[in-house]
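Slide 14.
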Amino acid sequence: VQLQAYGGGLVQAGNSLRLSCALSGRTSSNYAMGWFRQGSGKERESVAAISQSGDVTYYPDSVKGRFAISRDNAKNTMYLQMNSLKPEDTAIYYCAAGRTYGSFRLLTEYDYWGQGTLVTVSS
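Slide 15: predicted structure.
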């Protein structure tokens, strides 16, 4: 399985950005998928996750109501719509995939990781 994340960039606070993650090598519907981020000097944290069929999603309180995760299994692609961005959202964003039916929020649940895409939010 290979994951390719893209769509990062520099945006002003309050604006929006959409990240995409393309999965290749396997059928994406077999995998739960998630977005994680790692800011400078910080630990990697979950920002959104979605079950294999897309019927279950998870968001931490820090992004709930601002971020929306979705997936298109026909295209083997996952998305993260990020609205009302804040400077504290600045980080490298990673997509991940795993054969998990657990909480979807733990790094250890994911077997495959993309290379990351940088999101910078200016104030």
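Speaker note: The CA atoms of residues 17 and 123 lie 15 Å apart.
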